[in-house]
Write a structure and sequence with these properties.
165 residues, mainly beta, Immunoglobulin-like, 4-stranded mixed sheet, 11 strands, 12% helix
Amino acid sequence: MKRISYLLMLTLISAALVACGGGGGSSSPVANNGGGTNSIAPTITSAAPQVATEGQLYTYTATTGGSAPQSFFWNNLPSWLSANGATISGTPAAAHIGTQGPITLTVTNGTLPNANQTFSIQVIAAGGNGGVETAFLLTDAPVDELSVFQIEVTKIDIEDTSNNT
């Protein structure tokens, strides 16, 4: 009877070890990069600034996760931007006002999938706000009463039509 209990207990322990993989270890996702070591695929954990201002330095440094070493590939960079590893930087001129892109960053480390990020940059005029007009309304309305305002905005472009000679 002891022998049967002992064999039954060994069988149950063996089945449990087979079911859980036979040992401890990490449950985080890993992939083999083919070199005999475990490597985690790259990820991009930052977001690029979407607005640049004419005449002012624009900089974006991508932050990443995953195993090192990593390589950074920038595609479709505007002429005013240059890349150095995870960083792009440059100063747009008046000729660059408007939407630039789409720009694509690909990060690789030998483990698939590669990480990709695609974004565009809106270059606005210095001293401007991209065509958005701002207005402030001051009122004497009591704080505890509901106030309803209707605001109508019209943009007028004034052209100099004087005949200065």
